[in-house]
Design goal:
about 500 residues, mainly alpha, two-stranded antiparallel ribbon, 19 helices, about 70% helix, about 0% strand, globular, disordered N terminus, Amino acid transporter, transmembrane, APC_superfamily
Length: about 500
């Protein structure tokens, strides 16, 4: 018999736009967040140049494998909990409401910083492209134009944003595949080499830093789950889309890194990357294609960053919406646009915050690539990695408490493997965080950022405890979604098979 220990709050009337997105649209949001062309042009070239290892292709494929294992349990949980709060909702159901709110307080700054940091990259890239055309425009002006477009699209129909991403991503993926074919068709010495894909390269001291940087390149794929309430048949759509997003991003990055090494030769890829840096891909294809196709690549690099900006804006806005709807944030954040169904205050808040940060950096006259892009996205990426690590454990606990919902691979084996692997990656990241920020060994930023994340998580825990004492009905709504139903979060004894209660936005049983 189902338990009902606390009176349930009233059914929440506000909701995101339903049944808007199919599998392709959700995939586009996930792949756009991972921004493969941006990773290929920026991150892969930088790893070759800075780390000096030829193991980059196999590292990206291994990371895709790790995240695919994580995705197994992650999307299995999405079939039972449909909530735009994603990590927050899953951690709430697996580890309890208090821990879930702590995770939410980590998610908000992490995703906000990821999105704001990308404005720095967009502004710098757009400014350089316009300069090459003879037009002088500062990075801040370019970033403001992108900001205005994202702010408007964030308030419109989510399927409109999905269509914009579809056009941008199809063009982006097409140019990546074309460039890869060009590089492989012109191998160094006339021989296609698979040396950089050799598993033996994984057993070197450079693997740790490369794993961290590669994982950072995938951040954003998990945004698919944030769209679960707006997806058509979310039990199937989100699962398929998330798997496809990871696999597609992994293959594009891994094969592109291999194609670069094929073109230069494995023994020359590091030196060539150090010479050309972020122009590496363009320098390799330029001798073999018309100039216009290189120019198209530069433009699509800029639109790739814009696509990522749009995807992260959607994620931040929906996190805020979920927290407002469930009483963690003020209820005004739980309102949606009356016509478009977009999260109104969440979208506006992120736009205002981004504008304020960009103005502050512009006034300070700092380097947009180092301090806006590199610093903010690295700090935000650490927060997302913390959430992934916590979610992998939450998934494991959730299915241990609710046996029989999924097979043993999805409910136990894959989540356990993912938790162990992500624990290792997180440990390496925290230990070497100063190197990722490119600060001196005695810089306080080496330890300050991880400590700040612990601090905001503790603030979330205290906030949740205050809710439990002062607002028990709001506390009962944490992780519960839009459509009501009894929520059985882990404050009591574990449920046994046959006593499952409905949870999430669609009232699924678990």
């Amino acid at each position: 018999m189902a338990r009902k220990e606390i009176a349930e709050p009233d059914i929440i009337s506000t909701a995101l736009a339903r049944n808007r997105l199919g599998v392709p649209s959700v995939v586009f949001f996930g792949v756009a967040g991972a921004a493969p062309l941006t990773v290929i042009i920026g991150s892969i070239s930088a790893i070759y140049a800075l780390i000096g290892s030829t193991a980059v292709p196999v590292i990206y494929l291994v990371v895709a494998g790790i995240l695919s294992v994580f995705t197994v349990g992650f999307v299995a949980m999405s079939r039972h909990i449909v909530n735009s709060g994603a990590f927050y909702a899953y951690i709430s159901h697996g580890l309890g409401r208090v821990t879930g709110v702590g995770a939410a307080f980590v998610a908000l700054p992490a995703y906000a910083l990821m999105q704001i940091g990308l404005f720095g990259l967009f502004g710098a890239a757009a400014s350089e492209i316009l300069a090459a055309l003879g037009v002088t425009v500062g990075w801040f002006t370019c970033a403001l134009i992108a900001w205005a477009l994202v702010a408007v699209l964030g308030l419109l129909w989510v399927d409109l944003s999905g269509k914009v991403l579809a056009v941008l991503l199809i063009a982006e993926i097409s140019v990546v595949v074309f460039y890869d074919l060009v590089m492989v068709a012109n191998p160094a010495g006339g021989v296609i080499s698979f040396e950089t894909l050799a598993p033996a390269q994984l057993f070197t001291p450079d693997v740790g830093p490369m794993l961290v940087l590669a994982v950072a390149g995938f951040v954003g794929f998990e945004a698919t789950v944030v769209l679960s309430e707006e997806a058509k048949d979310p039990k199937k759509t989100v699962a398929r889309a998330t798997h496809l997003a990871v696999i597609l991003a992994g293959l594009l990055c891994g094969l592109s890194a291999w194609a670069m090494a094929v073109n230069t030769g494995a023994n020359q890829i590091v030196a060539t990357a150090q010479e050309h840096r972020t122009d590496l891909v363009f320098a390799l294809v330029a001798p073999h294609v018309p100039r216009v196709l290189v120019d198209v690549g530069y433009i699509l690099f800029m639109t790739s960053v814009f696509a990522a900006l749009l995807a992260f804006h959607a994620a931040v806005a929906r996190y805020q919406f979920a927290l407002g709807r469930e009483g963690v944030l003020p209820s005004v954040w739980g309102h949606t646009h009356p016509r478009t169904g977009a999260p109104l205050m969440g979208s506006i808040t992120q736009s205002v915050l981004a504008l304020g940060v960009l103005i502050a950096f512009a006034v300070a006259h700092v380097d947009p690539l180092l301090y806006v892009f590199a610093w903010l996205t690295t700090i935000g990426g650490l927060g997302v990695l913390l959430l992934m690590w916590s979610a992998s454990f939450a998934v494991l606990v959730f299915f241990m408490r609710n046996r029989g919902l999924e097979n043993i691979w999805r409910s136990m084996i894959a989540p356990m493997i993912a938790f162990l692997l992500l624990s290792a990656v997180l440990g390496i990241t925290v230990i070497g965080f100063g190197e990722l920020l490119q600060v001196d060994g005695d810089s306080p930023f080496q330890w300050l950022v991880p400590v700040l994340y612990i601090g905001v998580a503790l603030i979330g825990v205290i906030w949740a405890l205050g809710m439990r004492a002062a607002r028990p009905e709001a506390y009962a709504a944490i992780g519960r979604g839009a459509d009501g139903g009894v929520v059985a979060l882990p404050e009591g004894p574990p449920l046994t098979k046959g006593s499952h209660e409905p949870v999430g936005a669609r009232g699924y049983h678990y």
